[in-house]
Amino acid sequence: MPEAYIVDALRTPTGKRGGSLSQVHPADLGAHVLKTLVERNSIPAEDYDDVVFGCVDAVGPNAGVISRSSWLAAGLPVHVPGTVIDRACGSSQQALHFAAQAVMSGTQDVVAVGGVQNMSLVPIAYAMTAAQPLGFTDPFSGSQGWKARFGDQPVNQFYAAQIIADKWELSRSDMEAFALESHRRALQAIDEGRFDREISPIAGLSKDETPRQTTLEKMATLQPVAPEFSKITAAVSSQTCDAASAVLIVSEAALKRYDLKPRARIRHMSVLADDPIWHLTAPIPATAAALKKAGLSLQDIDLVEINEAFASVVQAWLKETGFPHEKTNVNGGAIALGHPLGATGAKLMTTLLHELERTGGRYGMQTMCEGGGQANVTIIERLG
Questions:
Q1: Is 241 a catalytic residue?
Q2: Active site includes 89?
Q3: Fewer CB within 10 A of the terminal residue: the chain, N end or C end?
Q4: Model confidence over 211-258: pLDDT tens digits?
Q5: Is 180:218 a contact under the CB 8 Å cutoff?
Q6: Radius of gyration of the CA atoms of the chain, in A
Q7: Distance CA 369, CA 342 (A)
């Protein structure tokens, strides 16, 4: 079967909510990573087959097929098309899957994938606020089929994070200790320059500005997000932030045509769903299914990037799989580094690739919980 290769991967720094990137239009964030990707590789811009971006809540400045808008805002050729994927938090990881599948099918040779999200300009509740005058209070209100199947059970990420913590016997203090370690790892990675190769500075920002110098004592003073979710606070949740990311996926024919050196091979891609009420548990069965399909075991995996939507999500995954925390999110996760929704999938892949190169590992795996109780899994093999 034809293979798909990663030639390059980069990202902007993560700008905190209301921070350095908060007024940068999403098309300009996307343009920055795309222009940088094209400039530092030997493939002529006119030879790109497609631009596939992840973006969640494609409204306001995110609207207008943001991948296409970003490509054009970068001053790149007008004949190159673009499309946008919304698989909630896994949008740009799915974008990578679709691009790799296109390359493996032989229908395309050069695809720029990535994602963009300015959560300062378009807050997470923006789309639902716009829908309220139409009588919709949540995505499922008015669906008789949904009510017949799931009743009035809440479809709520905070509810899911809470019941996951309860089922896997995670206390609030357990999750706060996990969150503190995420910040510690991220700050250490920044201090040691581990992110320098993967970050393309923009708007005067060259380093992630989301990690915090915090303490367990400070975390303990925070109020829960709601009284009924007693264990879930901002401290154990991913940060909203602003960022863009991009990955260059090519075929073997493109490697030869443009004399490119591949950095990794896409070893496996899959997606699996779980109970939508539990919402955030799908990475657990998705991991098992992916490894079986790939003919690998967790012992073969050198590094894992799993999105820290909430501390309980990753901690439950660690308990179920038995994979060592020491090899998981080694440079911190979204609790410290932010979760820019549509950009997160390609952002995590960028970090995973660079960390495999830094440490000399062979196999890296990426997974994340996604809206509707879904999870993508990608396994890459470092080359060279």
A1: no
A2: yes
A3: N
A4: 999 999 999 999 999 999 999 999 999 999 999 999 999 999 999 999
A5: no
A6: 20
A7: 13
